[in-house]
Amino acid sequence: MEPYIIRYLIIIVLLVIIAIAIAKTKKHDYRLEANKLVELLGGKDNIVKYEVNKSRFIVELKDVTLADKEAIQKIGAQGIVEIDNQLKIILGPNAKQIKKYINELGER
């Protein structure tokens, strides 16, 4: 086999390994985010109901003062709107995934 072919094969293998490593590091742990969000909303007992509307996670709370809105923004919320006992949290495309894991938390 020609030496230049071996070099190209080595380069291709290295690029594939790098691409796989990058893909794994960009993968979010939605379970961890869901757990953290529930905690920052005052815990499971403080959540009355929740739903997802496009990129917004809408949650009704028993006591909205227990929610740490500042910390919610620090973990990635793009915005929060408070109306009475309801928070509309803009989570972007992750909203549905996070709702799925919060549903799993409620089943435990």
Number of strands: 4
Mean pLDDT: 86
* Beta-strand fraction estimate: 15-25%
C-alpha Rg (nearest Å): 21 Å
Q: Major β-sheet, in short? A: 4 strands, antiparallel
Number of helices: 4
Q: Uncertain runs with pLDDT below 50, 5 residues or more?
A: none
Distance between the termini: 59 Å
CATH superfamily: Glucose permease domain IIB
Blueprint of the fold:
Layout: H1 3-26, H2 30-40, E1 47-53, E2 56-61, H3 69-74, E3 79-83, E4 86-90, H4 95-107
Antiparallel strand pairs: 1-2, 2-4, 3-4
Helix pairs in contact: 2-4
Structure, described:
It is a single chain. The chain is α+β, with helices and mostly antiparallel strands. The protein has a single domain, classed as Gyrase A, domain 2 (2-Layer Sandwich), CATH 3.30.1360.60. 50% of the residues lie in helices and 21% in strands. A 4-stranded antiparallel beta sheet has the order 1-2-4-3, covered by helices on one side. A hairpin with a 2-residue loop joins β1 and β2. α2 crosses α4. The longest helix has 24 residues. The chain is elongated.
What characteristics describe this protein?
single chain, about 110 residues, alpha+beta, Gyrase A, domain 2, 4-stranded antiparallel sheet, about 50% helix, elongated
